[in-house]
């Protein structure tokens, strides 16, 4: 018997089936981009189930345009971020505080959390999956943290999980925002296994209808379906590590420019991103390597506040979203305009907390 916690017409459908709490992101027209309401619904469901002995584990999927699966989550609702950032809507602050709280809860949930990462998995979609104990990808998975393209940085714990990719893969993915497929996601530690997309529905129903003896039995049922998929970028590790280990954004770009055809293409990508945010992101990833998740999320909460309010009327994020999703002219007017023009003081300012420690909005997060 399914126990629905939320309206089936809701953007988040949460129900208990068998031993599992099952969540479907139900905003297919927007590729399940997260609104503040969706973040609150997800938090409410997860908190309700966290100490419920009837719920052994949680599974989450996205609704696609043709039905269940096909798209997981394209990120946060950037149109809302643009409007709120342009008008001073206080819900902008609530969105990031509550989204990062959700990300932290998932990482420390204490029960298996199974994420079906089919189709688009970007930005906020990574935030609600990377903390999972079973992160499942398919041949349709398109995974990225593409925030530098909109004058933002890989938030939702991106500093934490990207910095823990092997070698300097984290810098590569964070700076360029490049999209990777299933095999690379596993090779780089951003997924636990691949299954064919046409097997997801059967696995979902198996999870809902099986009376698992324990979490080990549940884990075994999922892992038994894993298959190998090619890791196309794994062979580029040596070049990625050599280039993205360089100490500055300019030196990374110059190193790429002197490399293979693939590396030169990556250099071209960097030249299209926000020069200021490239400097911010490089520092973010390198600081985060020595941080707990809670410390990283507090740092990112500081950073995202600065993205909208450090330079009134000159937000790189508002401008980047304008160019990509509002006016769609794809001609962002970055300030500064070139990597070479960014001053150290400009990017360092993003790491000054606007709050004393006792008043930080995420002060209660532990480890």
From TrEMBL:
Annotated Gene3D superfamilies: 2-enoyl-CoA Hydratase, Chain A, domain 1
Ranges of residues in domain Enoyl-CoA hydratase/isomerase: 21-351
Coiled-coil regions, chain positions: none
Keywords, comma-separated and alphabetical: Hydrolase
Highest taxon above the source species: Bacteria
Name of this protein: Enoyl-CoA hydratase/isomerase family protein
Organism per entry: Comamonas terrae
